[in-house]
Design brief:
This protein is mostly helical. It contains 7 helices and 5 strands. A hairpin with a 2-residue loop joins β1 and β2. The longest helix has about 40 residues. The protein starts with a strand and ends with a helix.
Length: about 200
Amino acid sequence: MQFHGRGFRSGFVPCDDQTVYWFFIWTPSGQENEMEDNPVELKRHVLRKLENVPEEIRAIIENTNLDGIILSPLRYRHPWELLWGNISKGNVCVAGDALHPMTPDIGQGGCAALEDGVVLARCLAEVLLKELPSGEKAEKEEYSKRIEMGLKKYAKERRWRSIELISTSYMVGFIQQGDETVMNFIRDKSWLPTWLGLC
């Protein structure tokens, strides 16, 4: 279940009979930046923004323990940074949120990190398990070269998928959270509600 407003969006997902995962995304002003270490103020802020949601949803927020409220600033990585930047260098690479930070709009953050792990393991296994010419013994430098080759292959395979994920997440979030009249029209009145089966 998601709720949208001018400059914010929020979602609620039941995990089991007793637990609900919820998030609230907004672009903070300078004054709101000081709430980072104050869960009481964060809770008040969320309740103020969500004043028009059903009472059951407000109750979820009100009943959330303060130690369960965490502020995690989200970062946006421009797709061209992945297109022209380094995903791997030598025997070091990035994966997970470091590679493709995104808001929870498309629900793919954890899945993408798992994909990274599978692709990384496969790419490293392919180069490390390759047979050496008969009689040769693998030296430390040889392993280092092989790891670098595996990481380059991983970077090549994950580059476009990561660009797709962060671009899609950004566009969905932009439509959902947009303050502009055009975005509000697209989100609230045009094809989007019909496409999502809300009308």
